[in-house]
């Protein structure tokens, strides 16, 4: 009896889908919490115009990229990673606020998985 070869591309696809759904759920709860209770004890008292634009990229653009990646892996991953990159350019690097980097990198795992999967799928 011969063992079946493991299809690593298919495993990457499954990991990408599962982590995308988990990221969508996490960001959905995150955004819903801010809509329900936008002010808390850590509030700075308002957003600057740059903050408002940055919020369009993360979490909104990043969330939409993960939603798109459920059907179109390449499109969704490019939207998600592009949104994350713009968030870094607008907020993280200018303010040297590197505390958000670990969580944003963890949240980017599905986008990286889907990007690699799209590339490998095209090569196959």
Word description of this protein:
There is one protein chain. This protein is mainly alpha-helical and 124 residues long. The chain has a domain at 56-124. It is built from 5 helices and no strands. The chain has helices at 8-36, 49-68, 73-95, 101-107, 109-123. Helix 2 runs antiparallel to helix 3 and helix 3 (73-95) runs antiparallel to helix 5 (109-123). The longest helix has 29 residues, at 8-36. The protein is elongated and about 55 Å long. The model has no long low-confidence stretch (mean pLDDT 88).
Brief descriptors of the model:
124 residues, mainly alpha
List the helices and strands and how they pair.
Blueprint: H1 8-36, H2 49-68, H3 73-95, H4 101-107, H5 109-123
Helix pairs in contact: 1-2, 1-5, 2-3, 3-5
Give Rg in angstroms.
Answer: 17 Å
Spatial gap, N to C terminus: 27 Å
Number of strands: 0
- Whole-number average pLDDT? 88
Q: Percent range for helical residues?
A: over 70%
User: Any idea what the shape is?
Assistant: elongated
Please give the largest β-sheet: none
Give the ordered list of helices and strands.
HHHHH
Q: Find the structural class using helix and strand composition.
A: mainly alpha
Q: How big a fraction of the residues is strand?
A: under 5%
Total DSSP helices: 5
Detail the poorly predicted runs.
none
């Amino acid at each position: 009896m011969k063992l079946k070869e493991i299809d690593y591309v298919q495993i990457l696809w499954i990991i990408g889908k599962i982590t995308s759904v988990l990221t969508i759920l996490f960001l959905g709860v995150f955004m819903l919490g801010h809509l329900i209770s936008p002010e808390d004890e850590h509030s700075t008292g308002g957003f600057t115009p740059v903050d408002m634009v940055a919020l369009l990229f993360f979490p909104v653009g990043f969330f939409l990229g993960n939603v798109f990646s459920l059907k179109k892996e390449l499109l969704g991953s490019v939207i998600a990673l592009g949104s994350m990159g713009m968030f870094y350019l607008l907020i993280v690097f200018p303010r040297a606020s590197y505390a958000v980097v670990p969580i944003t990198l963890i949240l980017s795992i599905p986008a990286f998985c889907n990007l690699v999967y799209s590339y490998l799928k095209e090569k196959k």
